[in-house]
Amino acid sequence: MLFVFLVCGLLLYGIAGEMGSLIAAIRKMAAYAGAEKIYVETVLKAVGVAYISEFIANIARDAGQNALASKMEIAGKIIIMTLVLPILAMLIETVIAMLPGR
Fold this sequence. Notes:
89% of the residues lie in helices and 0% in strands. It has 3 helices and no strands. It has helices spanning 2-33, 37-62, 66-98. The model has no long low-confidence stretch (mean pLDDT 85). By secondary structure, it is mostly helical.
């Protein structure tokens, strides 16, 4: 099992540079499109949390720890919901402001 963690760590380290260039390209496209930085950063964080929690859950499943894998997936979903809560609040405020009589 220690070998699995070592190999997974080496794989993550190996693709870190590629992930950095991908994130830079996404930020550049968002700036070109005029998207606000907070939205792009939040989406990138949510995607990162989703990938990491899925990666950890798959490692736990491979080790035969299905209950732990399920808990890691739930934790990832809760973290993502916490990240997007400010955007959801802004969306609700925008919809309420658009309603007639407000």
